[in-house]
Amino acid sequence: MRLTSLYDALSKRRMQGQKSLAVLLDPDNLDEESCQRILELSEQHTVDYFFMGGSLVTSVHQAALIRFIKSRSAVPVLLFPSNSLHLDAQADGILLLSLISGRNPDFLIGQHVIAAPLLRASNLQILPTGYMLVDTGRQTTASYISGTTPLPYDKPSIAACTAMAGEQLGLRLMYLDGGSGAMYPVSPAMIRAVRQAVDTPLIVGGGINTQEKAQAALEAGADVIVVGNHIEKDPSFLAEMSHTIRHFNQPTDSTDFSRITRIL
Ligand code: 1GP
């Protein structure tokens, strides 16, 4: 299997302590006009990735949207598929999700078997991802459609052991997700526990709709913040999130100071 430049770049950013912003584009909630607005904003405010997908894609225009984005933007498009029907070779890569928080074999390996020859025949970069759904107060489309029980919100140690097992099985990224439009995001305690348990880049999303929530996730150890719902409602939130990430990535005075003391 190809080890990919997208994965290498993400891994390098993690080693350097650099955080990233992924904007989730759900084809069900997006038309060309709103997509165009997000693309314009992403020209002015750095976006590192577009994730494309949703738990229940009912529309048929995902392919047209990917084409639209690829013709207008250099931001990599990563598929975030809910099943093997949502593959599209126009994207740059795919988060190949194994739903390790659940016990539904179809989402642990079944869909992957169906997708494997299609993925091999495509040029999609494959990013094997341990996907962990977390209970954030109400049943999400993702947990319903996947037929899985999410991780209990207040059990960081279960999340940590799940991520550890995923890493030992060879998964290269971990994704902690409260589900789109979650009432509250994954707790900093759980993010911290997973961060300490594994070395892989850590993606966190679901219910991030304020600068404070994003900041808390970044401080707890998230490498990539995913925002979908709130940017759909208020596209200017993209600028706020981009600024939060850039601010986090700037070296601080204290970092400079520690470098100086090391030299002395
Ligand atoms: C959902 O992590 C993503 O799978 C993003 O969630 O839509 O709540 O931002 P939101």
User: Total number of helical segments?
Assistant: 11
Query: Mind telling me the CATH class?
Result: Alpha Beta
| Widest sheet, order of strands | 1-2-3-4-5-6-7-8
Radius of gyration: 18 Å
- In N-to-C order, the SSE pattern is HEHEHEEHEHHEHEHEHHH
Question: What's the CATH topology label?
Answer: TIM Barrel
Estimated structural class: alpha/beta
Number of domains: 1
Low-confidence stretches: 255-264
> What is the strand content?
15-25%
Helical fraction equals 40-55%
Number of strands: 8
Q: Mean pLDDT, as a whole number? A: 92
Bound molecule kinds, no repeats:
SN-glycerol-1-phosphate
CATH homologous superfamily heading: FMN-linked oxidoreductases
User: The biggest beta sheet, please?
Assistant: 8 strands, parallel, barrel
Explain how this protein is built.
It comes from Hymenobacter endophyticus. It is an enzyme of class 2 (transferase). Prenyltransferase that catalyzes the transfer of the geranylgeranyl moiety of geranylgeranyl diphosphate (GGPP) to the C3 hydroxyl of sn-glycerol-1-phosphate (G1P). Sn-glycerol 1-phosphate binds at residues 175-181, 206-207, 228-229. Its cofactor is Mg(2+). The chain is an alpha/beta fold and 264 residues long. The chain has one domain: TIM Barrel. The chain contains 11 helices and 8 strands. It has an 8-stranded parallel beta barrel with strand order 1-2-3-4-5-6-7-8, surrounded by 7 helices. The longest helix has 17 residues, at 105-121. It binds SN-glycerol-1-phosphate (1GP). The site of SN-glycerol-1-phosphate (1GP) has 15 residues, from β8 and α9.
